[in-house]
Amino acid sequence: LAVNLPILTMMNLPLNTLYVYLFFVFASGFIGYYFSPIHLCQVLTISEMGVSTMDMYKEYKTYIPTVLGILILSTLFFFLTL
Asked: What does pTM read for this prediction?
């Protein structure tokens, strides 16, 4: 976010368009951190439950594409309603 937000503000976009881009950048950053192996919930789950990182990501094989699809569809919806 620290890199992308200044770039977006320098683009001189209309505010409505800027809000949609900010939504996409913030939501994709959140998704990236949430499914990251350095997320503290992931670390706790791996250490306490005794599972490997690959086993945990096998469980995520449906969640990650679903969440990314919802993000892309909602961003397209916001662009269409401008």
From this structure: 0.83
